[in-house]
Design goal:
The complex is a heterodimer.
Chain A: E1 6-7, H1 18-28, H2 40-60, E2 67-70, H3 73-92, E3 97-101, H4 106-117, E4 121-125, H5 135-141, E5 146-150, H6 164-174, E6 177-181, E7 200-204, E8 215-219, H7 245-281, E9 286-288, E10 299-304, H8 309-318, E11 321-322, H9 338-342, H10 347-351, E12 353-357, H11 364-384
Parallel strand pairs in A: 1-11, 3-4, 3-5, 5-6, 6-7
Antiparallel strand pairs in A: 2-8, 7-8, 9-10, 10-12
Helix pairs in contact in A: 1-7, 2-7, 3-4, 8-11
Chain B: E1 4-5, H1 16-28, H2 38-58, E2 65-68, H3 71-85, E3 92-96, H4 101-112, E4 116-120, H5 130-136, E5 141-147, H6 159-169, E6 174-178, E7 197-201, E8 212-216, H7 242-279, E9 285-287, E10 298-302, H8 308-317, E11 320-321, H9 337-341, H10 346-349, E12 352-356, H11 363-384
Parallel strand pairs in B: 1-11, 3-4, 3-5, 5-6, 6-7
Antiparallel strand pairs in B: 2-8, 7-8, 9-10, 10-12
Helix pairs in contact in B: 1-7, 2-7, 3-4, 7-11, 8-11
Classes of the chains: A alpha/beta, B alpha/beta.
């Protein structure tokens, strides 16, 4: 009999949805023109890209000319931060100051570290034990040289939702640019750029059941930003290179549907999440990481005392359950998560963390199966642990 | 009537096998290669296999290949990566005037940032003057970047000689080859050429759009264009576009089996079109090197007296797709910088069309193109011939 397969790692990547695939397929097959070509095969591709831009803008409450397609979330974050840093430095003839948090994704954190090496001033704000950035701390960090604040909409590891509306209002009031890495939030939280005071917002298609290899950066009109590299002028020069036409179409279709389904999805996802959290906490010696209420509807992150997260992960994998011990991008490294450490967890607890991210396609039966596998697994691993007080 | 696509230097139709593989991965093999579970490992295997396929075609080590989002990014990673890593040596960069915009614009940007850049001229056939190159190389020269095959006129640069000159005059100077138009069409011999970096792109070889690669000789250190996770050994972070990369690998493998026959077949098409037009008495000029010297898949012709766009749109109405210059800047009405650099006069500059072939084309198609073009040119000339 084939083993049951349960995918609980939607925060790492999510399966492409059929509707998005169907929208993409013609552009992989017959409509393969280069959007920059003058002939009708090229123009068809160009129109499809521009239609996707309109769809994307509409789903976010933006204007089409404020949407720039990229190769993914990492590239979008890099353009947003480096692109504004370099542009501002040239305009002001000095390297300014930017504010970010210590729980950002590496695609933000490492960009900021790189800029710090190049001579920019960078403040990495601390967070509280839930992973929350306080608006007050942002305010205190600002200097006359501050040109950019970059705070994620929601954390990829612990799901904590940051106060981006308030931070955006503060930034706008002070005339400072505000970027938010919304890679985990888009498709999981309502985002309306008509209300949100955000100048730059990054998103990635494969986190909301779109294809890999494509993302977008929202750039509010008038925001000073420059490209990371030069080329043929595509994406109005901000992101040159032949467009990934099928990918862009898949992004737009997946986003459109994700936004349409959001209210309904949030309801069942949150219920499933809460059931999962309740069951996990009921196992004893388990703590919830991240905020108890202000968290992504699909995110569960817990620490099991006396157990290595990695051992749990492998045990689950053997039973067909895909989960994560941190974010996928760092799970190759043995270091405990920088997010959990920033939240003040000690190393041992941080190492015992398990991230379960729910998404489209998950059901109560998946959660039932998880518990069937997890309970004996946790007991077995704890028995082997030298630290476990219950050991005989 | 079915379309005849002769714009394969802009982009190509993916192989059916590639579409099938990409579709399968998109839907059923969606893991993130960085994940530790079975789905992640399955995705990582796809990357390894693609790397193996491309390494086999380039005859290089697998761990010397870095996947990017395409040729433009690969070119920029090569140039900026070297320039920024070696910044403290008041670096000098050499390139030519007929490079792709992704190289030229990158070099212009580096020049603005304080690097010295020499944009060397080329002769009337698009060849780099090797004496000029020798004179241009100096102590501070950190990098020479040339294309292998020019995307508009098909000139094949003497990369082996260029590599030898560079290494003889300054062994510390690195050599980057933009191989986007030559990859999988002309056998690569990276060691022989004494190359240090080589860029290629999937969608030019019947792979999907959105994937490319940069080959970096082991021991050469680059500064990444962007920061993030640890993918591609931190040189190119971001969740890998597994479907496109796997499609790239498969396209490379299929091309490898075709390589020799393919070049001969492409050359036959190119020759047929040019000779056919000549024999029909059309006033036509070949831009670039003589037929047999240029890349087998690119034919750039001028039809004096007829504006490029006019003929392009006439052909388009007949479902024949060609290009007036390279696709990446054909939306601008300016004449091609490549054709200007080889010294074409106005009448040829503004009447040039690029025909570029692939293994999906055949002689029947070429005959039909000739049948359509010949009367069209006569007709258009009577309108415009004042």
């Amino acid at each position: 009999m084939q083993k049951r397969q349960v995918y609980l790692d939607h925060g790492a990547t999510s399966p492409l949805r059929e509707e998005a695939f169907e929208a993409m397929l013609p552009y992989l097959q017959d409509k393969y023109g280069n959007p920059s070509s003058m002939h009708s095969s090229g123009r068809d591709a160009r129109h499809a890209v521009e239609r996707a831009r309109e769809q994307t803008a509409l789903a976010l409450g933006a204007e089409p000319d404020e949407i720039f397609f990229t190769s993914g979330g990492t590239e979008a974050n890099n353009i947003a931060i480096k692109g504004t840093a370099k542009r501002t430095a040239r305009a002001r003839k000095k390297k300014g100051h930017l504010v970010t948090s210590s729980v950002e994704h590496h695609a933000v954190l490492n960009v900021c570290k790189e800029l710090a090496d190049e001579g920019f001033q960078v403040t990495f704000l601390p967070v509280d034990r839930y992973g929350l950035v306080s608006v007050e701390s942002v305010k205190r960090a600002l200097t006359p040289e501050t040109f950019l604040i970059s705070i994620m909409t929601a954390n990829n590891e612990v799901g904590t939702i940051e106060p981006v509306a308030e931070i955006g209002a503060l930034a706008r009031e002070r005339g400072i640019l505000f970027h938010t890495d919304a890679v985990q939030a888009v498709g999981q939280l309502p985002i309306d750029l008509r209300d949100l005071k955000v100048d730059l917002l990054s998103l990635s298609a494969h986190k909301f059941n779109g294809p890999k290899g494509v993302g977008a950066l929202y750039v509010r009109r008038g925001t000073p930003v420059e490209p990371l590299y030069g080329g043929g002028g595509q994406e109005r020069g901000l992101r040159p290179g032949t467009e990934n036409v099928a990918g862009i179409i898949g992004l737009a279709r997946a986003l459109e549907l994700a936004v349409e389904e959001l209210p309904e999805k949030t309801r069942w996802l949150q219920a499933l999440r809460d059931r999962l959290i309740e069951g996990l906490l009921g196992m004893g010696d388990v703590v919830l990481n991240g905020h108890p209420s202000s968290r992504l509807p699909g995110n569960v992150n817990v620490s099991f005392n006396y157990i290595e997260g990695e051992a749990l992960l492998l045990g689950l994998d053997l039973e067909g359950i895909a989960a994560s011990s941190g974010s996928a991008c760092t799970s190759g490294s043995p270091e405990p998560s920088h997010v959990l450490l920033a939240m003040g967890l000690d190393h041992q607890i941080a190492r015992g963390s398990l991230r379960l991210t729910l998404g489209r396609g998950n059901s109560d039966a998946d959660v039932d199966y998880l518990f069937t596998v997890l309970s004996p697994l946790v007991k077995r691993l704890r028995k082997m642990s030298a630290l476990y007080p219950g050991q005989g | 009537m079915t379309e005849i696509y002769l714009d394969n230097s802009a982009t190509t139709r993916p192989f059916d096998e590639v579409i099938a593989l990409c579709s399968h991965i998109q839907r059923d093999n969606y893991g993130n290669p960085s994940s530790l579970h079975a789905r992640g490992i399955a995705a990582e295997k796809l990357l390894n296999e693609a790397r193996r396929n491309i390494a086999s075609l380039l005859q290089c080590r697998e761990d010397e290949l870095y996947f990017t989002s395409g040729g433009t990014e690969a070119n920029n990673l090569a140039l900026k990566g070297i320039a920024y890593r070696r910044q403290r040596r008041d670096g000098h960069i050499i390139t030519t005037q007929i490079e792709h915009p992704s190289v030229l614009n990158c070099c212009r940007r580096l020049e603005e940032e304080g690097f010295a850049v020499s944009f060397l001229p080329v002769d009337r056939q698009g060849y780099l003057d090797l004496d000029e190159l020798s004179r241009a190389i100096r102590d501070e020269t950190i990098l020479v970047s040339t294309s292998h095959v020019n995307n508009e006129i098909g000139t094949i640069q003497p990369v082996e000689k260029i590599g030898a000159i560079i290494k003889e005059l300054n062994p510390r100077t690195l050599y980057h080859i933009d191989g986007v138009q030559s990859f999988a069409k002309i056998p690569a011999s990276l060691q022989h050429w004494q190359a240090d970096l080589y860029s290629c792109s999937a969608h030019k070889i019947h792979g999907p759009k959105g994937a490319g690669a940069l080959w970096v000789r082991k021991g050469v250190s680059l500064q990444p264009l962007f920061q993030g996770g640890e993918q591609e050994k931190t040189l190119r972070p971001g969740t890998e576009n597994t479907a496109a990369i796997a499609g790239f690998g498969l396209a490379a493998r299929i091309n490898e089996t075709l390589l020799e026959d393919n070049a001969a077949q492409l050359y036959r098409l190119k020759e047929k079109l040019y000779r056919g037009l000549q024999q029909a008495g059309v006033e036509v000029y070949l831009n670039g090197p003589p037929l047999e010297q240029a890349a087998p898949h690119i034919l750039n012709l001028s039809f004096p007296g007829i504006k490029s766009e006019v003929l392009l749109h006439f052909l388009e109405e007949n479902e024949i797709y060609v290009s007036a210059g390279s696709a990446c800047h054909s939306r601008r009405p300016e004449p091609s910088h490549v054709l200007a650099a080889i010294g074409l006069d106005e009448s040829r500059l503004f009447s040039a069309l690029r025909f570029s072939f692939s293994s999906f084309n055949n002689l029947t198609e070429i005959n039909r193109v000739i049948e359509r073009i010949v009367p069209a040119i006569r007709e258009l000339k009577t309108y415009q011939g004042r």
